[in-house]
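Fold these two proteins, one after the other.
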Amino acid sequence: MKKLEKLFPTMVIGSLPRPQWVQDVIAEITQKRISEEEADRLLDTAILFAIRLQERAGLDYISDGEWRRENYVGVFADRIGGFSHETVEGKRLSWPHVTSRLEPRRNISCDDAEFLRRNTERRIMVPLPSPFTIGLHMWHPELSADAYPTREEFVQECVTIIRQEVIALSAIGVDAIQLDEPWQAWLSNPSAYHLDSDQDIQAALELSVKSVNQVTEGLDDLFFSVHLCHSHRMELVPSESTYNPLMDVVNKIDVGRFAMEFNSPASGGFEKLNRFPEDRILGLGVINPISFDVETVENVISRVEAGLQFVSADRIVLNPDCGFATSAASPQDLDVAYRKLCVMCEAAESLRSDYD
């Protein structure tokens, strides 16, 4: 387990709400109306603003706000060749799907991370979609089978690319690498993700565990997180049976930190932490990223104290439940996000004074 540099360090999950003009630039690059070079030139200035916002809020680990990405998974298809928007039964699918063998066109996040590293002295974190998350969204049994006959084969190819990216990020000096894996979305509403039986769920979880461990194998000096989240606005309260597999698989994954959601009814509450591994760090979700109501310092402290019933203070990092804007057009407000991060950092300072 990585030893934390201080009690209750603060982190983002990755994304911040994009101002409208940033959304417009992302839309133009997605539609190929401007070049990648022109988009990067325009977004450099915006990302400097996102960096300073996080520094002013008081965060210990910061991201670039994911302001060069349309969404947290689609960035893989944006940077890697082999994907297309096809139709099935006359309907255009929401996600690009792999239709030919993968061919890297440019790095997924290294250029973005280099810009972030040059422009802050804070610790930096970079989120990447996990191989299985990519496979869940971007492999289709009809459209993808000629290139990759099974989802498992496609996920294995993604493992190779993500692992190479991780090694390159380490050389840049990235302090934390986060793999996004929205298990709680599948587990609270499996049918929405075409997981129709307990057998489907178990196979998905096993492939997820295997692929994450393949990415991290032997890279013991890197600080890896897995972010486990629920889908925004899918406020379903899970049954007890739905959540049985969660902590089993958490205990099988070889990363230093798990960032987990606790503010949604769908999260299942704090009780699941009674089986949280004793040699791992908990990224404790203390901020609700989709609510426009700004938490109070007292709200955050009470959530941390609930987590402390199960996990010791020297193993807790504070973070929001999820990113504030997992896609560019998410309707969250940037000023509200800033105020929420300020409250989280103020609460962390108060907790340090109490527990040091």
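Now the second one:
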Amino acid sequence: MDSLDSLFGLRGHIGIVTGASSGLGVECAHALALAGADVVLVARRVDRCEKFADELAKKYKVRAIGIGADVALDADLDRIMEISRAKLGDVDILVNNAGVSPTGRAENFKRESWDNAIAVNLTAPMMLSQRVARRLIETHKPGRIINMVSIYANVASSVYRLSAYCATKAGLANLTRQLAVEWAQYNILVNAIAPGWIPTEGTEGGMAKAGNKERMEMFTPMDRVGQPEELRGAVIFLASAAASYVTGTVLSVDGGYQSW
């Protein structure tokens, strides 16, 4: 690895990004395509995925496809794998980004909201990782799995009531470690990224409420919220040869939020 391209280039690799129609999923897809990987964009809003796939293909000269799917459904996960393989080839990078963050007082939190958070935030990453890993093991190929967790995998939220979100992200962080241990022998490296406060389509409304953004900045040592594109470097690093001896770690991109 004697050049930047050999360290960080992803040409010849194929990655899936879930939750890729908006927010941080868009940045994850940009990161993979920027480094040269072909990309499968997955979200329920298929029109957005397909339009975004066209944009990536033109901008970065890569192959990109959009697939409309609900990651909480096993049949849709099977379809994602089938279409990806048929159109692009075997996937060797997976970014489990899709997630939900229902809010509500813990004493009144509805069972259906709790179950849905577990299904999308925790079960879906396990089931899709399993499908990708099985194929990699079968074909004796290395791979990378990146799980999107959160600062709230490690700490509680003082801004929103997020019992289900915090619980599922903490579970996903430790699932990351367990999968890393089990799949290290196959050179399938499993890591996570824990973003801090970054404005996206899903968070801008909350940030706009009186005092919220100021509170977020006050508890962040860098004294500001992040920018979506600041996630790209972490994604490229963990997906690339530069991270060939990194597995089972949670990389925080949070402006120092968890360092107090």
